[in-house]
Amino acid sequence: MTETSLPPTLPRTVTGLSEAEAARLLEERGPQEPTRTSRSYASIVRANVFTVFNLILVVAGVATFVFGHWEDALFIAILVANSGIGILQEARAKRALDRLAALVAPTATVIRDRRPRQVGVDEVVVRDLVRVQAGDQLVADGTLEQSSGLTADESILTGESRAVARHTGEGVRSGSFAVEGSGYYRVTAVGMDSYAEKLADVARSFRHPRSPLERSLNTLLFALVAIMVPLGAILGYSLWAQKTPISDAVPTAVAAVVTLVPEGLILLTSLTYAIAALRMARRGALAQQLNAIESLASAEIVCLDKTGTLTDSALEVAKLVPASGVDEGELAHALGRYAASAGAKNGTLTAIGQTYDVPAEPVSAEVPFSSRRRWSAVRIGSSCYVLGAPELFALDGLDATVRSEQAGGRRVVVLASCSSSLAEVDVASDPEQGPPGELRPLGIVILSERLRPDARETVEYFLSQGVQLKVISGDAPVTVAAVAADAGIPAAGPPLDGRDLPDDPDELRRAALEATVIGRISPEGKQRVIEALTDAGHYVAMIGDGVNDVPALKKARLAIAQGSGSQMAKSVADIVLVRGDFGAIPPMVAEGRKVLRNLQRVTKLFVTKSAFAAFLILTVGIARQDYPVLPRHLTLVATLTIGIPSLFLALAPSSGPWRSPRFLREVASFAIPAGTAAGLGVASSYLFASDVLDLGLVQSRTVSVTVLTIVGLYYILVLEAAGQARATAVGVLCAVLFALYCLVLAFARDFFELAVPNAGIVLCSLGGSAIAISGLAMMDDRFIPAFLRRGWLEA
After folding, report:
1. Torsions phi, psi of 80, nearest 5?
2. Which of 598, 608, 600 is nearest to 714 (CA)?
3. Cα angle 381-387-388, degrees, rounded to a multiple of 5
4. Which end of the chain is less enclosed by CB atoms within 10 A, N or C?
5. Helix (H/G/I), strand (E/B), else coil: 258
6. Active-site annotation, residues
7. Percent of the chain whose pLDDT exceeds 90
8. If phi over 0 gives left and psi between -120 and 50 gives alpha, with beta otherwise, what is residue 308?
9. Which residues pair with 151 in a beta bridge?
């Protein structure tokens, strides 16, 4: 438990528990179950074990045990090993993410012994008095004892997107967030007794829809199942019509079905995401959605707030410029009173309060700051002050100074005194109401922000990757434009004023696409810009840290929040930059694109196997011929040409573009011809060996397995052997894998029902491999390894 930086002076009406009372109540209540910060271990096990394809394989394995030979159920052991590896890796990633999540977990500011203290959610007890400010999460149910313009976002509980004003005496619920204002509420229920916990179907966190890659993989898997059913029926009918004995029919059917199933693809995808999330965690980024790594790699437009992203979140008072007839000391004292006494703090008031240390005084009326209104007000004794954006005031001779400072990238706010009553201000019914009348400017406050040291380098990286950057901020357009230019973001014209956003959707879309900088924009305006860019067909990411960024974060395909930002922003984010390091994003983008490029290539290997199975069923499978391969053969080949290589290649270095919408097209354009060619090579060499050379069933099947192994390793060279160094590494890997196959022939051939290679087996294997490889190479040079293509071109 830590003491916060909140002022120790509290209203007389605000009385919390004593430390002794809180400790007693905490002991009486007992420990609470900790809030889940990531997938549970049970969920990880279910995701890796209970899948449709695992069910198909288990049924096939049981049938093999009962009606066939146990050796042909070897794929069950591989299935168990794969699931075990996936569970262990995801559990490892979970532990790392849980440790990181603890750093950004929501906290509560409770009043103990009349002093504000920051405690963990599990330390809040019934009868505690909790202070809540804009951006804070309400961690327990309670009744408001004091409200200073407090509005709450209860959408997670009610589905209502608009914030609701909450007044003294009204109830508040855990799971909601303070959007504006501040207040104190008395806790009435915590933990399992709270309203949110009692809602069985409540959405505990904001979730984006499935990513394009996830949708593509689901489409692919549904397509494979749709193909598997009729092909299985055709094969089953053929075996029944031929009166094939069940001891032969089961291995044949299992061999066909097992080959159609991409048994390791889903495992590899979740494993890749888990490892990527673990690597992100090491860079101080918490992935709260499993598909965040893909969204990060796919982003085409990144919209970002200025303060806290391009610049440090902390503001500093650069100087004061008093109005005519006002002494600078008088202005400084008034600012200090305002900052110390106001109940609702923001970055501007915090900076002012740190510069001008003035004792806090009782506040009789307050209008909290809102980015929609762009002003706040407070009445202290007989004095009334209004603090807000310069354009809301008649500045007389200060206009030139304001324009000059804003053009230099500085934030400018005005302090004015007011003579009218704040009781007449009703921001609840009119959230965009202007400041009260009869204002007399006292002067302007000029605040400076420091550009983050890594901002220019990060901007340069995004631009080099073809990612568009757009800065959308509530500050003055010229101020935002100056900071954006300083960070290296190219201007596509004059900055746009968010108050002038067009209502027509087509015009808004055109304006959002053309503008690089938008200032004086409301939270709803940010949301509209994100929606317009998304409607234009772009994959949009949003980086923000404040309550005013939340509507835009919710609408973006990828939401990134700063670790130092509001609890509300962090709760809806896909990725939280725990250390607030904007410079950590480029390496994560590179990591994501590398992983997804590799995953796409490895997926081609899995689907090629399925295409091969379909070809073999429709040719040899329905003929009066023994099937060319046994299930144990396919397990061996899949392990050597897909299983082992994919573990290395999925996380290996890679380069090149990544476009998720073309995923299925890219996979199919490779897998269908490659699978057909492999099937043609296997079928022709097998039939030649058995029917022409009369080599016998075991020897003919040895030809089939050898051809399939050689062609499978060749496909790895085609997909992975890009640069010279990579081609060498992949070539060595393929050589090692083929050597493993030779060892199997030498020492485990009886188990796998393979024969010692003789001249006929070798010649048929080379001929079948040549048919498959040469046919592909003549059809499309994509099926020639890159290093060979370059060599031929140079020759």
Report:
1. -65, -45
2. 608
3. 160
4. C
5. helix
6. 305
7. 27
8. left
9. 165, 180
307-320 residue pLDDT tens: 878 888 778 899 99
End-to-end CA distance of the chain: 73
Per the CB < 8 A criterion, the answer to whether 640 and 607 are in contact is no
Q: Please say if the pLDDT value at position 81 is more than 80.
A: no
pLDDT over threshold 70, residue 443 = yes
CB 550 within 8 A of CB 568: yes
Helix H or strand E segment including 90: helix 74-101
pLDDT at 279 over 90: no
Sign of CA dihedral 505, 507, 510, 513: negative
What backbone phi and psi angles, to 5 degrees, belong to 448?
-110, 150
What's the rounded Cα separation, in Å, for the pair 504 and 135? Answer: 31
How far is the C-alpha of 539 from the C-alpha of 660, rounded, in Å? 10
Question: Count of residues for the chain?
Answer: 795
SS3 132: strand
Per-residue pLDDT tens over the stretch 721-761: 777 778 888 899 999 999 999 999 999 999 999 999 999 99
Query: What confidence tens digit (pLDDT) does each residue in 107-119 have?
Result: 889 999 888 888 8
Of residues 763 and 646, more confidence is placed in 763
Main-chain dihedrals φ then ψ at residue 141, nearest 5 degrees: -75, 150
Tokens, residue 455: 């901002």
Residue 31: alpha-carbon gap to chain centroid: 32
DSSP per-residue codes, 200-237:
TT---S--PPPPHHHHHHHHHHHHHHHHHHHHHHHHHH
The residue type of 572 is V
Q: Which helix (H) or strand (E) holds 63?
A: helix 52-67
DSSP state of 396: G
Give the closest residue to 396 by CA, choosing from 476, 478, 325. Answer: 325
Give the 3-state secondary structure of 582-603: HHHHHHHHHHHHHHHHHHHHHH
Q: Which two tokens stand for residue 757?
A: 């290679």
Whole-angstrom distance, CA of residue 548 vs CA of residue 565: 11
For Cα atoms 172, 176, 180, give the angle at the middle one, nearest 5 degrees. Answer: 85
Helix H or strand E encompassing 303: strand 301-304
Question: In sequence order, what are the residues at sequence separation of 6 or more whose Cβ sits closer than 8 angstroms to the Cβ of residue 455?
Answer: 310, 311, 487, 488, 582, 583
Please, where are the H alpha helices in 438-549?
Answer: 455-464, 477-487, 505-514, 523-535
| Greatest extent of the chain over all pairs of C-alpha atoms, in Å | 111
Mean pLDDT (the chain) is 83
Work out the pLDDT band at 793, boundaries 50, 70, 90.
very low
CA distance linking residue 458 with residue 452, whole number of Å: 10
Residue in 783, 795, 627 with CA at minimum distance from that of residue 715? 783
**Chain-centroid distance, C-alpha 370:** 29
